[in-house]
Amino acid sequence: MASTLSVLLHCTLLVLLLAQPTHSSTIQNPKDATAEQKPRSSSSHTYIIQTNHLAKPSQFATLERWYSSMVATHSPRAAMNSSSRLLHTYGTVMHGFAVRLTEEESRRMSSTPGVSGVYKDTVYYTQTTRSPGFIGLHEEFGAWPESEFGDGIVIGFVDTGIWPERASFNDSGLGPVRSSWKGKCVDAEGFNASLCNNKLVGAKVFIAEHGGALTPRDMVGHGTHVSGTAAGSEARGANLLDFSRGTAWGVAPRARIAMYKACIGHSCPGSSITAAIDAAVSDGVDILSLSLGSPPSPFHEDVVAIATFGAQRRGVFVVLAGGNSGPDASSVFNVAPWMTTVGAATTDRVFPAKLLLGNGDVLTGQSLYTLKAALTSAVPLVSSPCGMDDLKPEKVMGKVLVCSKNAWRRRGMSIIHGPPGEVSVDDHEWFRDAVGAGTFTLPGLVLGYAAGKKLYAYISSVPYPVASFSFSCDTVTGQNRAPMVAGLSSRGPSKFVPEILKPDVVAPGVNILAAWSGEAPLSHSESEIEARSEYNIISGTSMACPHVAGVAALINKRHGDWTPAMVRSAIMTTATPLDNFGKPILDNGVGKDGRGATYATPLVAGAGLVLPALAVDPGLVYDAGTQDYIGFLCSLNYTVNQVRRFVPEMTSCPTTLPGGAANLNHPSMVVVFSGGNRVRTVTRTLTKVSEDPETYTAEFAAPEGVTVAVTPKTLEFRHKKEKLSYTVEFRSDVKPAGAWDFGHIIWTNKNHQVRSPVAFNWQS
Length: 764
Fold this sequence. Notes:
Mean pLDDT: 88
Number of strands: 39
Shape: globular
Largest sheet: 7 strands, parallel
Helix content: 10-25%
Distance between the termini: 37 Å
Number of helices: 17
């Protein structure tokens, strides 16, 4: 889950693992709770054992008996039933189980016939009324009424749980969920199954809280927020501390929600995530939203990649957060081509607050401080590292703290013993538009890097720097340039497969208002008493991800026979690279050279900002399925055994993709010039999804030194579902090794524009 713009903002250990038990390994019984909570030996860890179910010996009547036999053989424990040691079993998107083993036992298990892979469990971390309108959704016309607001589509969330009493989860006007739906809500501690309704149609738990409680209830707010963002019902009067007051809608407000809790706090063990996703696919979700991530690894070593592959084989569209490790290059998470990977961008809404310096300069940032003040009295400024040792009253009394680190900690300091104000400088965001608007308990605001430079310059230029605050407590919309890609948003290229452009798209992910847990504070401060609210405003790719899940629900409702790849293509090829001023989207990240406010390349913004009104009618799509992805994996020189982790029934690698991984039928293109080869050819196939005959003409843009030849130059489609292919030859002059540049190819007519971003890379 992409996280709030806080300490978690820069946490890079995010990752998903998917797959759950076919028999209800939903950790709903006390046995599992005990297994998860009892003290662990320091020499043992949880391992996920992936099996090839086709290799089960005939003497075992069930897979679970086979698994128990493996555990008894390779990890005997006195006075323990081996079947009781199975923490989870998986049987839908992949097969296998989770169990506690020593390192030596895991090695023995890996050599067992029928075991495809052994993965040491990893802890992953989570990655938030305006955003639907900003991406073009309107109640009276366009994608919402055309798709019936996503009515009946089930979105599954693997997250921290849900707070079902919130207004965003009311089922007013909704009929029963479809009869084929297999999910359900479970009775649990503090959670009655009767809390579910025709909006919240499933709630299961796969991990125990600290202390042993098994409950789908959300204790930290993240799961409540992302599910409300994607599919929340109309909720009038939504606001946080009177900011952003209005009617809150999810992107697909009539879609249904199924929550699969796999996280304690913001920590999500891979084994629990795997179980949750397996259950979701078995229950029959249409879409999976996973605001989770972690630094990528080779696909055959990544259980998330394996499990999401299994989900797409069953027709489930999977969308994941791209990570909050920007603005560094090659920081993007969740890069498999069968995943839809989402970066975070701003909307045209800000919460302005001002800092007036003693030299007369006025710096504007953002704040959710609630007391209006035209101008406070001038107070001395002090620049501080703002570690906990720096926040003692004797050091900060009577001064406004200026911090670039750990600003979140100070929000819990009492007014009696703390400073009279605080200023946080976000070193990763150039303009204030993408900084997190903090819920300050003291007068405070957050500045972007550009304003911060002016502030630090002033502090260093005078012996006694002072400043005053001005708080209008306003919510301002429609005046600022947007979207901008947030500096926190992780960027490409992918370290493992640079031929696949990631992220795929960006969506609103900065200062998003949505439902919140009744147990969770509004921030991650260390205050003794934190305010509670029905809504919260937070930021991260976690918040961008459910926007795209909601868009996918609208598409799925209108085009129920489309494959996940067709849905992803529709979202990507109709996305816009332009902002609301008609100019290229800006990258708000601060580079290592201290520069900012540059144009966002496809490595930063993917294909651009999602536009659901266009995505429901894309004209043409790029489709891909299991065989395409097998060819892709084989083109990476994976062994048969490695590819078998994705497709257990496979006996040999088919012919790899001609031209390598770059020729996967993906909506974007990466052209790598290497080894002295200055000519590259890429092939793509388009499928017509509109009704009437249409002819498309190719248009393209390429950087200086690259020539482009598209064959054929026109594509004439006569009927729906017709497929036509084209090739593109790229010729390049010699350029420095490591250089990147960008262009695009558009198939266009008077009704549709099908746009593919193209990235060029020169290697030695």
